[in-house]
Amino acid sequence: MDPVIIVGAGPVGLALALALARQEVPSVVLDEGPGKDELRLARTVVLREDTVALVERLTGLPLDDAGFRWAGWRSIRRRQVMREITFGGEASRSAEGPGDGEEFSAPLHIAQHALTGALREAIIHERLVKVAVHNRLDSVEQDASGVTAHTRGPDGTWWRGSYLVGCDGPRSTVRKLQDIRFPGRTAVERHAVAALRTELPWPGEALLHRMTPWRTSAPSTGEVSARPLAEDVWRLDWLLPPGKDLVTPDLLVARIRETLGGWSGGATPAYELLDTGVHTVHHRLARRWRAGRVFLAGDAAHLLGALGTQGLDEGLRDADNLAWKLALGWHHGPHPALLDSYQEERRAVVAARLRAADQALPLLRSGGGLRSYVPGSARGHDALLTDGHLGRGPLGAPGAYTGSPLMPPPAESRALVDTEPGAPVADVRVTAEDGSFVPLRERLGRGVLLVVLIAPGTGVWARKHWVTAGIMPRLAAAVTALPHPAELLVAESYSGAAAHTVLLVRPDGHLVAAFGGVRPADLYEAAEAALGGPANADAESATEATTAVRS
Questions:
Q1: Which of 309, 301, 316, 302 is CA-nearest to residue 54?
Q2: In the predicted model, what is the mean pLDDT of residues 43-66?
Q3: Which phi and psi (to 5°) does residue 306 adopt?
């Protein structure tokens, strides 16, 4: 069968190629550039825990070596510290006052060229991925069995593929060739950006300072963020007022000196300016993410980024969601319901994120802010911004596919856990089939379903001592009979789950359902729903398979 054609060699396109390769699907990545990335320290991304784990699975490299974990987060309004959060390992506590504690994951801050470089390095060693540089797409044609694409450039030619995915950014050629509308708002926010090496009073801590007391240099709205990178490098972002005022080098240097001096309480500390830029935030959402065998992902499908939300983070989740569905179709034949679910799930999540940001913006950016609506709500104002920057709440947390067409029908055996169906599962330690102890996230992305039994006490015994005891043989038989390959894992505990709860998890780490005990028929039905229903239209064959499991 022909490879998947991926248009665009940014982080999303490269991640999708690697995700497909992990599931034995070949791909061709069409890169209109030379295959190298410009080193820009003013162009960085913040990744949440789940997307960090995804990239590390794909590359085999620890991203912490290329990026920087924040030691903490603080919000300041005028001269008052509104919130301080200290990260400790994977979780942390926020302290607004004694006894107050919320758990936060420490985000990873990484230069985009370093992220792309890690993905490119992994692809060099991947036999199933071909990167074709200097190939700019100019036409796409579809038929019943695949896609034909033509590229121009020194190595331009015709390409034949099974599917085509446009990961070619905001000005996507794929989207335009498919005549897909891209409505939304332009220049929702603008930021002046500088990357510099210096020492700030909060080593390793990210900072959001609003209504700065020294607002003198124009253009300015009095909001600035500072995000640390390794080796005493910081990225500073100043929110610019609406309009198209030119940010000149002199104005930017004045802003840097003023801000550093304000934070240091006097004279401007020594600094080395490494990179500058202007970052413009747009909010747009493609009307369709699928047109037959052609799909959109990343910035080609959506643009968001106001209030701290990260578009690349969502783009990587697009790749994770789409990869296992394309792989199943590539290996077993097209499954329209499963492929349609990509748009239904991912578009709904991104649309909700955009709605949340657009609803919050008028409150946060107006002169009176939330104080005009709720007295004493400065902390609520700060909490919204913190959510976006730290990946929490409607502005930042990973989305749940609660309205997904892949959700199974209700069953009496369904159990409640602290993860709602459709949401990403928690990264608990599990015992794999070879007896090793691994994080649950390490078993994702291989195209198989995961069945996790919650069995307290198993963690202190080798698997060989309990693998044939109790309910394990019956559960193992049920897993073997599922309509798709699945791996049986065992966890000591899971938040909100009683002993002998069984979790069914999709290849991309989202919970399908939780069951109270071993229920083979219900487990089969849920697995089939998660795959988009029976793979063929022969209802009699599907009924026979279900009957065989029930018996």
A1: 316
A2: 94
A3: -75, 155
Collapsed DSSP state (helix, strand, coil) of residue 6: strand
Model pLDDT for residues 83-98, shown as the tens digit of each residue: 899 987 444 444 443 3
User: Are the beta carbons of 302 and 282 closer than 8 angstroms?
Assistant: no
- According to DSSP, the β-strands at 294-296 and 164-166 are parallel
50 and 424 in contact (C-beta within 8 Å)?
yes
User: With contact defined as beta carbons under 8 Å apart, do 142 and 162 qualify?
Assistant: no
Helices 336-365 and 311-332: angle between axes, nearest 10 degrees: 170
Are residues 169 and 302 in contact, defined by beta-carbon separation less than 8 angstroms? no
**Which residue, 317, 319, 331, is CA-closest to 484?**
331
Q: What is the pLDDT of residues 441-473, one digit of tens each?
A: 999 999 999 999 999 987 767 777 677 778 899
The CA distance from 155 to 176, in Å, is 23
pLDDT at residue 162, as a whole number: 97
**The dihedral of CA 489, 494, 496, 498: what is its sign?**
positive
Q: Return d(Cα 328, Cα 528) in angstroms, integer.
A: 13
- How large is the angle between the packed helices 311-332 and 11-21, nearest 10 degrees? 30
- Structure tokens belonging to residue 16: 């999708």
pTM higher than the cut 0.85: yes
